[in-house]
Design goal:
Helices cover 39% and strands 20% of the residues. With 342 residues, it is α+β, with helices and mostly antiparallel strands. It is rod-shaped, with a radius of gyration of 41 Å. The structure holds 3,4-dihydroxyphenylalanine. 3,4-dihydroxyphenylalanine binds at residues 168, 170, 210, 248, 251, 254, 281-284, 305-307.
Length: 342
Amino acid sequence: MLDQVKALHQELEKAQVSNQDELESFRLRFISRKGVITELFQGLKQAAPEDRKELGRVLNELKDQAQQKFKNLIHSLEVQAASTSSSDLDLTLPPGGVNLGAVHPLSAIWERVIEIFGRMGFNVSDGPEIEDDWHNFTALNFPPNHPAREMQDTFFIEKDPDIALRTHTSSVQIRVMEKQQPPIRTLSPGRVFRNEAISARAHCIFHQYEILYVDENVGFKDLKQTLFHFAREMFGKNVKIRFRPSYFPFTEPSAEIDISCLICQGEGCNICKYTGWVEVGGSGMVDPNVLENCGIDSNKYTGYAAGLGIERTAMLKYQINDLRLFTQNDIRFLEQFRSLGF
Ligand code: DAH
């Protein structure tokens, strides 16, 4: 029997498994109740009584060895499985690039506008996106029956008294002038809302920047020169700007601002409606009624104001021909602005 035990010790020492089937064979042979070791324990009964104690010790040793070996084999199979399932991991490869985000083009324009006007002495002001009728319409000289006050143009939140999502950043002009006497030189970028169908040129949510300058002796020439300078800073020396006579309740005289189309370079495209010019906003001399509504003496002070679209500005600057791209979150679009940095 001792020879048999010795042979089994050696067999155990050498045993290797490479899969679950082989492990199971090992278990059946050495561990199970029908295995060789149990069989040897049963043989003890036939051994001479004086040998039994020593044989029992030897067999228990063998049993311990088998159980330890079994644990080791289970562990080695687990290690093997883990390393084969990640065999596509090549630790010698150089690390992949880290994908940094990019500044959204609208944010880039927003920041650039603040920078350009900041250098001309304009501070930044802000107002609420949910506005009352006074700041969005009445103080801006809108007559009671003006079409902008209708449901089809404005998102109303409450009626009587009217509370709405602001339709333009001109409401911030009122908020600033109510609080501050001239000289006022302020820029108000912000989000605005209009009840409009979404298309390549229009959206129900978009952004504007409002420019307001009120002081003694401010004239239309100041408005023109400031916007001309701004356009050159924003779009480069070759840009052309033109003022088209227009009407707004809060300015007199009023003008729409056009920028030469930088998308088609004047050849004609869907954004400039084949005219070579893109309207970027409105402007004019602040109507004396508006100054008076805010407690500013219109005999002493005059001012100019303008409101331009951030989306329109970004479309011209980056040659984007569909405004919907700004809000679709398509990574292929956004990635193209990586170079703008943070
Ligand atoms: N608030 C006007 C709009 O959203 C734009 C505008 C026109 C703003 C003339 C002005 C201005 O400050 O003077 O259509």
